[in-house]
Amino acid sequence: xxxxxxxxxxxxxxxxxxxxxxxxxxxxxxxxxxxxxxxxxxxxxxxxxxxxxxxxxxxxxxxxxxxxxxxxxxxxxxxxxxxxxxxxxxxxxxxxxxxxxxxxxxxxxxxxxxxxxxxxxxxxxxxxxxxxxxxxxxxxxxxxxxxxxxxxxxxxxxxxxxxxxxxxxxxxxxxxxxxxxxxxxxxxxxxxxxxxxxxxxxxxxxxxxxxxxxxxxxxxxxxxxxxxxxxxxxxxxxxxxxxxxxxxx
Length: 249
Description:
Blueprint: H1 3-14, E1 30-31, E2 39-47, H2 52-61, E3 67-70, H3 81-92, E4 96-99, H4 112-130, E5 132-134, E6 136-137, H5 146-154, E7 158-160, E8 164-165, H6 174-187, E9 192-197, H7 201-217, E10 221-222, H8 225-229, E11 234-237
Parallel strand pairs: 1-7, 2-3, 2-9, 2-10, 3-4, 6-7, 8-9
Antiparallel strand pairs: 5-11
Helix pairs in contact: 2-7, 4-5, 6-7
Keywords: Carbohydrate metabolism, Cell membrane, Cell wall biogenesis/degradation, Glycoprotein, GPI-anchor, Hydrolase, Lipoprotein, Membrane, Metal-binding, Signal
GO molecular function, one term: metal ion binding
Pfam family, one: Polysacc_deac_1
């Protein structure tokens, strides 16, 4: 085995909060849409938060799954007792969990070391709480550059954006979000990768049930992001850890 291959393998195993941009790496792929026909991936950013349970229940009741892109310290610390329960609940109910980075910062404004810090801290939290290392990362605001792609690639991740935005995070009313889903269904794309946010009560209780019904009636299977791409959701799956004093924000 060549030295460069050995070095890259060691870096992928050991990378943490710091890594030099001179280290060998493969730039991460960026996905904007699903690839499997007649699938729709409903994704939810900015949690874990109080409406996660209702989002999950609405999906499960419709025999559907979703994908939650979690922050580490956005609305509340991911290590709080309530948020640990929410993360476990989503994972245990068949949904995919993924990285939305630690503190929801615009990664394009950060240095190499700061980008890695935003990434590894939430990855560590998900591994501690649920036992999984996520294979997907959605950058806050959808903002990324080559440095972000290089950092994600070094961490073994795929960068995820979306091809449909419900508009809830930029002030859309439930009626406007529903109308956007109506317009989406009327176009009948082969597949859908939809951006929603679990932190808004009206998204969870008004928009989501409507979106589920409209998409399923149009013939879409509501699946996880990984399933709609034909990829694995996690880089590794193991046993959760035991909380201690280091589980803090």
